[in-house]
Amino acid sequence: MSPLAKTTTLTTMTDEFMPPDPIYSDAEVAAVFEDVLRRGDEDSASEFDQIGPYELVEKIGEGGFGVVWLAEQSEPIRREVAIKLIKPGIDSEEVLARFQREQQLLARLDHPGIAHVLDAGLTPEDRPYIVMELVSGIPITSYCRRHELSLEARITLLHQVCAALQHAHEKAVIHRDLKPTNILVTETDGRPQPKIIDFGIAKALSHEGQPNLTWMTRQSRLIGTPAYMSPEQTMPGTGTDARTDVYALGVLLYELIAGRPPFATEMSLAEMLRHIREVEPPRPSPDAGDLDWITLCCLEKDRERRYPSVEALHDDLLRWQEGRPVSAHPPTRAYLLNRWLRRNRVLAASVGMVVLALVIGAGAAFWQAREARRKQREAEAVESALITAMHRAISTRLGHAPRAYDLAKDVLIQIKAGSFPGSPATLREILTHGSAAAEAAGDQEMAAWAREEVKRLNP
Fold it and tell me: Is 241 considered catalytic here?
C-alpha cells in the first residue's frame, strides 16, 4: 500500500472550500511519485492498434500520466500525428477531468512555438486521448550539443521558448512540466524552431468562463519531473503559478550554460526533493557573468524573489545580449560603469583617446611649467649672484679688489646693449648697485647712465 493511501480518496469541491493539505515527508512524497512512474512503466505497450481514424504505429514518448504514440491519420486527410493516450491504472475520473481541461486549454493556444492540438476524445474503453501536431525534433539540450551552438546561439533559442511560453501564460495556461524532452527543436528553412509540447498537466490561472467547473484532485499526486520541479511543486497542496515555469526555465538555462542541471540526477528522489527546497545551487559557470545572476534569480527558493513573469526573464536575457545592465544583478556603480563601457565600446574608445590626449597634454603642460620654474630659479640665482657682485664692488675699495668693478662693468655694458635678460625689478637693483660701483671706480660716464636707467625703470 502507498504511504499516502489514507489520503487517496477523491474529492470534488471548488477551490474556495479546499481543506488544508497534510504535510508529508520527502520520503512519503517520493514513494508516491515512484509508484506513479512504476505503474506507467508496466504499461509500456498499448492494447489498441486503431483509435478512430488513427492507426497507432509506435510509442515515441512517455510521461507520468500519458503515453505518446506516433499514429497515421486516414481521414479526412492523411498525415502523421502524435496521440497522447492516458495510462491505465490512474483513476479515470481524475484523469478524464485533467484531459478535458488539457483539450480546452490547448485549443486556446496558437503560437508557432507550441504544438497544436488537432483532436481529442475517448476510446471505446473510455480512455481519454488527445491528438497533437507531430513534432519531428530533438530535445533542445541535445540540439545544442549536436550543433555545438555557442552560448549566444543557445540564449537565442531560449528567447523563442520564452516567447511561446509567454503566449501560453497570457491565455491563462501554465505548463508545470517544462524540461528538455518537452521542448523539441525542428528546423524550418535551415533555421531552428523550438516547440513546446505536452501541456498535459497545465493548470488554468483563472476559471474565467467556466464558473461551474469543479476540480478533481488527488492530494498525494506530485505534478512534474523531479529535476525540473520548483520548490512549491515538491510540497503537495502548494499552489503553482507562472513563476513555476520561470523556475523550470532557470533549470534549463543552467543546463544550457553548464551542460548539466543544478542538482545531480544520480541522487535519490527524496534527496533531490530536499535539495530543491533547501540547497542553493552553485553558480552555473565561473565566467558567465550576468547570465549567472539571471539563472540564480530564476532558481530562487522563494518565488517572490524570482522573476515575476517569463516576460521579465526574457527582457533580462535581451539586456545581457545587448550588454546593458540586468535587473538580476545588484546595481553597484562599478557594475553599471562596466556595462556602459561594454555597451559603448566605440564611444568609450573615443572618449578614452580624448582622455589620454588630455592626460598627455596635462603632463606636457606640467613638464613645461616645471621647466619654466627651474629656469626661473636658475635666472634668479644668476641675478642674485650678480647683485651680490655689485654689492661687493661697492663695498670694496678699488685698490684692494681691482677686478670687482670689472665684473660689474661687464654686466652694465650688457644691459646697455640690451643683451642681458632680466626683469625690470632685477635690472633696477643691478643698475643701482652698478652706478654706485662705477662712481666709486671713477667711471662717471657709466655711473651717470646707470642712474638715468634706474629713473626710467622706476614705475
Answer: no
Q: Which of 358, 244, 257, 354 lies closest to 301, judged by CA?
A: 244
Could you tell me if 320 and 192 lie in one domain? yes
Burial zone of 306 (CB within 10 Å; 0-12 exposed, 13-18 middle, 19+ buried):
buried
Contact 279, 321 (CB under 8 A): no
Q: Where in 278-348 does DSSP place strands (E)?
A: none
Domain final position from 292, 319, 342:
342
Kindly report the number of other CB atoms within 10 A of residue 411's CB atom: 21
376 φ, ψ (degrees, to nearest 5): -65, -40
Residues 248 and 261 sit within 8 Å (Cβ to Cβ)? no
Does residue 144 sit in the same domain as residue 254? yes
Coil, strand, or helix at residue 408?
A: helix
138-139 and 128-133: which strand pairing? Answer: unpaired
Catalytic-role residue among 177, 198, 290, 443: 177
CA atoms within 13 A on the CB side of 92: 8
Position 334 pLDDT exceeds 70? no
Q: How far apart are CA 221 and CA 32, in angstroms?
A: 7
Q: Is the pLDDT score of 135 beyond 70? A: yes
| C-alpha distance from residue 43 to each of 60, 85, 89, 122, 308 (Å) | 14, 11, 9, 18, 39
Q: What is the pLDDT of residues 2-22, one digit of tens each?
A: 333 322 222 222 233 333 444
Give the structural domain span for 257: 5-40+138-342
Of 298, 320, 342, the one marking the end of a domain is 342
Answer whether 0.85 is exceeded by the pTM: no
